[in-house]
Amino acid sequence: MNHEVRKMLQKLRKSKNKKISENMVIPQVIKDKIMREFTQSEAMQMVEKQGAPFQRLMAYYQCAIMEVETKFKVLNNEFSLQYDKNPIETIKTRLKSPLSIIEKLNRKEIPFSIDAIEQNIFDVAGVRVICGFPEDIYEIADYFLRQDDIILIQRKDYIQNPKESGYRSLHLIIEIPIFLAHEKRMMKVEVQFRTIAMDFWASLEHKLKYKKNLGDDVEELSRQLKQCADDSAKLDLRMEEIRRNVEKQNRIQQRKRYDIVR
Ligand code: GTP
Ligand code: MG
User: Fold this and answer.
1) Topology given in CATH for the domain delimited by 51-238
2) What is residue 259's predicted lDDT score, i.e. its pLDDT?
3) pLDDT tens for residues 206-243?
4) How many C-beta atoms lie closer than 10 Å to residue 54's C-beta?
5) Which of 24, 44, 228, 233 has its CA 20 to 30 A from that of 74?
6) Cβ(85) to ligand 1 under 6 A?
């Protein structure tokens, strides 16, 4: 248990509140609630204390997000010009909130500091690239990683190896330079690649995961969700196959037209 939470519980026990006796077992939900409330106020204090450096670090991560987003927009444009297709449907970006940063540091039992954030939390800057088809994901990720200012730190392929829950997505942790007035800084960014179907599933599952009072239904719901993920992955592959056939037909037609003109 977190040191501060233990201290807080001791204080509570010593307080005049007779309802909390020395030997009373405190349920996990209460501990979690205390932890959360503590973390919230701690987050505020930490951020206030480290005000300017923290804000600066967040601004750097925001710059890294902008750099990465631009790279994907350029790639999508390039595909549109060269191959008349737009593999990327949407790009979503987010900066991790101070509270989530502190919660993650606490989970890893690492004291809060600006250095600790940079060295231990790799998803402060998050970019999600939503593609139409699974093969577009690998193509776009490949072109992105070939750029000589991008350093790959970690690659997790949950499309080839889905999670137990059914979750699918390709995750990259990369480093990208940002150019400031007097220095070049390497910043880490987490990039998640998903198809529209994978993204839809993940959003739904995320919402349900944090729903309370699901009680005994949880297991059945998880089973159904896993089934949906598997069905949805099959559908992605079927649609990809249809697209391949349509493109093949287009190429045949174009060649025929070209032969007639010649
Ligand atoms: P985190 O500490 O959560 O960042 O986990 P990790 O560092 O082991 O990374 P992982 O690649 O497992 O997951 C990173 C992110 O992917 C999460 O923050 C979620 O956004 C997403 N994710 C991973 N697993 C799931 C899942 O089962 N369901 C949903 N909806 N999202 C998931
Ligand atoms: Mg993460």
Assistant:
1) Beta Polymerase; domain 2 (3.30.460)
2) 80
3) 988 777 666 767 888 889 999 999 999 999 999 999 99
4) 19
5) 233
6) no
* CA distances in angstroms from 217 to 198, 200, 230, listed in the order given: 23, 21, 20
> Hey, which of 103, 165, 188 would you mutate to test ligand 1's pocket, going by the most ligand atoms within 8 Å of its Cβ?
165
pLDDT at 1 over 60: no
Range 76-92 average pLDDT: 91
Q: Is the pLDDT of residue 95 over 60?
A: yes
CA of 156, closest atom in ligand 1: 11
Number of helices and strands in the chain (H, E): 8, 5
**Atom 8 of ligand 1: nearest residue by CA position:** 156
* Mutate-to-test residue for ligand 1 from 163, 208, 228, highest number of ligand atoms within 8 A of CB: 163
- Asked whether 202 lines ligand 1 (CB < 6 A), one says yes
Span 168-187, average pLDDT = 96
Quote the pTM value.
0.82
Strand 184-195 versus strand 125-131 pairing type: parallel
Please identify, by atom number, the ligand 1 atom nearest to the C-alpha of residue 165: 27
In the numeric block, the tokens 């949950």 are attached to 158
Q: In whole numbers, what is the pLDDT of the chain averaged over residues?
A: 87
Pocket test for ligand 1, best of 92, 107, 109, 123 (most atoms within 8 A of CB): 123
- Residue 96: CB atoms within 10 A of its CB come to 19
Residue spans per domain, the chain? 1-16+27-50, 51-238
End-to-end CA distance of the chain, in Å? 77
